[in-house]
Amino acid sequence: MTVTPFNPRALLAESRLGVLATIKADGRPQLSPVQPFYDQRSNILYVSTNEGLAKTANLRRDPRAALEVTSADGLSWATAEGTVTLTGPGTDRHGPEVEALVDYYRAAAGEHPDWDEYRSVMVNDRRMLITMPVDRVYGATIG
Fold first, then answer.
1. pTM beyond 0.85
2. DSSP 8-state class, residue 4
3. What gap in Å lies between CA 36 and CA 95, rounded to an integer?
4. Domain 8-136 CATH superfamily
5. pLDDT in tens, 11-62
6. Is the peptide bond before 89 cis (omega within 30 degrees of 0)?
7. DSSP states along 70-124
8. How far apart are alpha carbons 44 and 116 in whole angstroms?
9. What are the backbone angles phi and psi of residue 110, rounded to the nearest 5°?
10. Among candidates 68, 70, 67, which has minimal Cα distance to 141?
11. Residue 4 burial (C-beta neighbours within 10 Å; 0-12, 13-18, 19+)
């Protein structure tokens, strides 16, 4: 019997649901469910979010963050830590802020059926991109 060692980076890459932890002004953690995309080659984690949320205010004040994901069966987990950069929101559908969201979408999901619509929604919804080069990854599996 061959046992494959647990790879927390692989779990990060396959997970599309996680919990992002940011730091509130009083030092307590603020947790947000998010849909992350982790690019193993570049070791960068991406999350699309909206302007005006607690996580964006927290990250502007203190850019340190952690993201935790679990396997579908709940028996494995992985946590990534790093310092984020916020991009956006953009006001120009073809500006660099929206282009960053287009690049993110392409990497995470492929081609969009209507890029004009996507770009308009990104501007209208005041979407932002959280980019986190991963400094540390750890995790475990049960069994």
1. yes
2. P
3. 23
4. Electron Transport, Fmn-binding Protein; Chain A (2.30.110.10)
5. 999 999 999 999 999 999 999 999 999 999 999 999 999 999 999 999 999 9
6. yes
7. E-TTSSEEEEEEEE-EEE---SSTTSHHHHHHHHHHHHHH---S-HHHHHHHHHH
8. 27
9. 95, -155
10. 70
11. exposed
Tokens matching residue 113:
């059926």
Written as six digits, the tokens of 123 are: 């501007």
Identity of the residue numbered 1: M
Sign of the Cα pseudo-torsion (36, 50, 58, 60, in order):
positive
Q: What is the DSSP string of 24-56?
A: -TTS-EEEEEE--EEETTTTEEEEEEETTSHHH
Two tokens at 69?
């994901």
Residue type (1 letter), 133? P
Q: Tell me, what DSSP letter sits at residue 61?
A: H
Per the DSSP assignment, residues forming a β-bridge with 33 are: 19
Q: pLDDT per residue over 66-117, tens digit each? A: 999 999 999 999 999 999 999 999 999 999 999 999 999 998 889 999 999 9
- What tokens does 82 get? 């790093």
Instruction: Judge whether 32 and 22 are in contact, CB under 8 Å.
Output: yes
pLDDT tens-digit series, residues 28-38: 999 999 999 99
